[in-house]
Design brief:
56% of the residues lie in helices and 11% in strands. The protein is α/β, with parallel strands linked by helices. The protein has a 6-stranded mixed beta sheet. Helix 5 (161-173) packs across helix 8, helix 10 packs antiparallel against helix 11 and helix 12 (298-310) packs antiparallel against helix 13 (316-328).
């Protein structure tokens, strides 16, 4: 047995070594760079808090710390098979946006695409996207995991402009997709642009025929997306810095709501008072009354509601609110009953009328009992 074992060792040592596979370099993604004149954004900690709360405000440093990011993907679903075939990253340098667009020409370039994106985002303190919190960043995070890469930039503080835009403009615009905001808010509608819904199909066709021309149009679409984010951020920051300078009452009222939510009630009050006319009269009247009530400014609230109930249109909600105040705060049941009956005479829908009937019945009972 020892002879056989020794013989096998000799044969193993004399056998030629198996050729080792050559180490192949990692396929590299393609890169396109563009420089775009931008100017100052008007960044401030207060503005970032207004738009993105504590997360954005804590990340505030300077404009160079911002990184605008937008991806073009192989599909529109959020499934595991969807990946970004292009990542556009905009950084502000000397009043310009320096845009880097990374794109892959086949799936084997994905790892380099993600690594290159992480490299471009070095030094970034706040990611800025449009709808990136629900789509772009979760997808990129999942692809980083699939490629066994650390999450890196996907964990940076994140400001999603979609939410701020909705808070300021949804009342007037109803829809707040980026194309509509470009047209109405930025005054720059797109011409001859590729609809986003077609982009996954363009990528699939490129894999089959290798025609790069449509992909270049996708890059132009992405360039516009990223640059528009910077312009939109500037408009949103302007709106919070000087809300009553906006041209539309709906936007001023909406800014008031956002300012109140951001803990800036004095500025919110100014917005509501500024829009106590026209189509926003009812909304602003309700908001201002609510603000007075929360701050315990009872006499000012009464004067405000009295002016609304006596003025043009004679807002019925003001009578109802006054009736509540006179019943519960002033204990003036006769005045509360008068206001309740005035409101009932003008008519209110279903449940509100039932509430007025219940209030009237309660007030009559208290008056009959002498309070």
């Amino acid at each position: 047995m020892s002879f056989l074992r020794d013989r096998l060792k000799q044969l193993a040592q004399s056998a030629p070594a198996e050729p080792q596979p050559e180490s192949r370099p990692r396929p590299r993604c393609a890169i396109r760079r563009v420089s775009l004149a931008l100017g100052e954004i008007g960044l401030s900690r207060e503005g970032l808090f207004f738009l993105g709360g504590d997360e954005a405000a804590r990340a505030f440093a300077c404009e160079e710390g911002l990184a605008f990011i937008d991806v073009e993907s192989t599909g529109l679903s959020r499934g595991a098979g969807t990946t970004a075939f292009e990542i556009g990253i905009g950084r502000i340098r000397g009043g310009k946006m320096e845009l880097t667009q990374l794109y892959m020409r086949d799936y084997d370039e994905e790892e380099d695409l993600l690594r290159s994106a992480a490299e471009c985002l070095k030094g970034a303190e706040l990611l800025v996207s449009f709808n990136g919190k629900s789509f772009d960043l979760p997808m990129l995070r999942a692809r980083m995991v699939m490629n066994r890469l650390p999450p890196g930039f996907t964990g940076l503080p994140h400001l999603d402009l979609l939410h701020g835009a909705r808070r300021l403009y949804k009342l007037r615009l109803k829809q707040c997709n980026l194309g509509r905001l470009e047209e109405i808010i930025l005054g720059a509608p797109r011409q001859d642009d590729i609809p986003g819904a077609l982009i996954p199909g363009i990528w699939a066709a490129f894999l089959k025929n290798g025609d790069l021309e449509p992909i270049l149009r996708v890059l132009e679409h992405n360039e516009r997306d990223v640059f528009s984010m910077a312009l939109l951020l500037r408009e949103l920051l302007k709106a919070q810095a000087d809300p009553t300078a906006q041209r539309h009452a709906e936007d001023i009222y909406s800014a008031g709501l956002a300012l109140e939510r951001a803990g800036r009630p004095r500025e919110a009050e100014r917005c509501y008072a500024f829009t106590l006319s026209g189509g926003t009269r009812l909304l602003s009247g309700l908001a201002l009354s609510r603000l007075y009530r929360r701050q315990g400014r009872l006499d000012e609230n009464i004067a405000h509601l009295q002016a609304l109930s006596d003025g043009q249109g004679g807002e019925n909600f003001a009578r109802v609110e006054l009736a509540k105040i006179y019943e519960h705060k002033k204990r003036d049941y006769a005045q509360a009953l008068r206001l309740t009956e005035e409101a009932m005479a003008l008519g209110l829908p279903g449940a509100e009328m039932e509430a007025l009937r219940a209030r009237r019945k309660r007030l009559l009972r208290r008056l009959n009992k002498g309070g």
